[in-house]
Amino acid sequence: VESKVFRWLANRRHRALRGELSAYIDGRLSSEDERRLEEHLEACADCRSELEELRSVVEAMRSLPTVPAPRSFAIEPAAVPRPRPVGAPRASLALGGLSAAALLVFAVILGADLLSRSGGETVQKASVPEAMAPALQADAGAQANESGTDEGALAPEESPAPEQAPALAPTVTAPGEAAETPEARAAELPTPPAPEEEAPAAAQEGGGGGAGRTVLLGLEVAFGVAFVTALAGAVWLRRRGDVR
Amino acid sequence: LTTSAPEETLVERSQGGDLAAFNALVEAYQTQVYNLCLRMLGSPQAAEDATQETFLSAHRHLPRFRGGSFRGWLLRIASNACTDELRRRRRQPALSLDVPSGEADAALDVPDKADSPEQHALRAELGRHIQTALMELPRDQRLAVILCDLHGLSYEEIAGTVGTSLGTVKSRISRGRTRLRELLLAHRELLPGSLRHST
Q1: Which residue among A26, A60, A75 sits closest to B19, beta carbon to beta carbon?
Q2: Which of A62-71, A132-141, A208-217 has the highest mean pLDDT?
Q3: A28/chain B closest Cα distance in angstroms
């Protein structure tokens, strides 16, 4: 029994060490493993001959000739695709974000407008300006910059925008620059403080209830247009990027 | 002038859009890439296609190269191109038939000036047997053995190129060589050194 156990152990050891012959050839064994394997090699003829055969395999592999390349693989200038505008994907992403923001503001304003219509003048006066304060002020500021005083002219003023965004696109390289479009300023404004002097001015102009409604209507149209424009711009940029 | 610039400079200039600099790199590595593809695929025509694909893909993905070994990066792209080709063959078994042996032999048969005609014939035959045996190996083992014994990459470089662990590289090489040994023992008279004489 003892000799059987001994043989089983030796066999197991043999198989484990046999698997290290390849690493041994490459000098990848730790000095301790190397010593253990060399000890085994002295005792094991099978491993010795396998080691020699593996060495021959490695030698044969290394003796394979290097085949010269059949031709030059240099790339012809004509085969190089025209560089894809690097900024396009980012600008597309930025415009997508802007359109989402514009849609959100649009929805809020629309909601407030509808609420005020059903809830009467008091609700409108009380809730809308407060809830919408940052966006309203911001937008008023932006529009005051953009189109002067007349709110009625706001919607028509915005309409050239569809051409503006795509026209800007090729030069747009970063979201920061993209943010310089009117839509961007309007949509981004919840964060930066609105220009203080201009906001009250706009609010005063929209003094009465009817005028307030006109402001809301103007804002709805403005943000609606901003949403569509930014979305169209984003889609256009993406598609242009994919062509290449 | 371009070809004598250090590799790093060539890579940088290539990334900046300098095609001449990139082609200097192509010039420097096309033989290695071609030989890797040739040994992986066993067919000169497929190897040529895969080499072309490797350099086009490398050029396309230059912006994604973030330093390190450019050779390792190229060989990685090349091995991916070979993997794609081998997968394609498996999907379309009609194309998996090896090229007529005459064509492959002609490409793999590189005369060594020091050889006598007899030595040359023996070497050519051994080359054929090795290639046949290589094609019998699982893809991963074939790649590991080729990168190690033909390209002389270290285990670490192979791990980086293939994207696997050192232990896996070690075991793939070991199993690949062991299998090659079994396949080549049938032709031991062709093998160099002791394998020829051992019994």
Answers
A1: A75
A2: A62-71
A3: 9
What angle, 0 to 180 degrees and rounded to 10, lies between the N-to-C axes of helices B117-136 and B101-108?
120
In B, which residues are within 8 Å of A47 by CB distance?
none
Report the distance separating Cα A80 and Cα B14, nearest Å: 12
Compute the C-alpha angle A47/A50/A55, nearest 5°. Answer: 125
ipTM of the complex: 0.84
Could you tell me if B158 and B145 are in contact, meaning their C-beta atoms sit under 8 angstroms apart? no
Query: Which of A20, A55, A64 minimises the CB distance to B150?
Result: A64
pLDDT in tens, B166-192: 999 999 999 999 999 999 988 777 776
DSSP for A149-215 reads: S-GGGHHHHHTTHHHHHHHHGGG--SHHHHTTSHHHHHHHTTSSPPPTTHHHHHHHHT-SHHHHHHH
- The CA-based angle B17-B22-B26, given to 5 degrees, is 160
Dmax (CA) of chain A: 108
- Answer whether A75 touches B (CB < 8 Å): yes
Distance to chain B for A24, nearest Cα, Å: 10
Q: Do B60 and A65 touch (CB under 8 A)?
A: no
**Cβ neighbours of B110 in A, within 8 Å:** 65-68
Task: Decide if B110 and A66 are in contact by the 8 Å CB cutoff.
Answer: yes
Nearest CA-CA partner of A26 in B34, B172, B130, B182: B172
Evaluate whether A97 touches A89 at the Cβ level (below 8 Å). Answer: no
Q: Which of residues 39-68 of A touch B (CB under 8 A)?
A: 49-50, 52-68
Contact between residue B66 and residue B76 where contact means Cβ atoms under 8 Å apart: no
| Closest Cα in chain B, distance from residue A144 (Å) | 44
Q: How far is CA A25 from the centre of its chain?
A: 48
Tokens representing B61?
């993905």
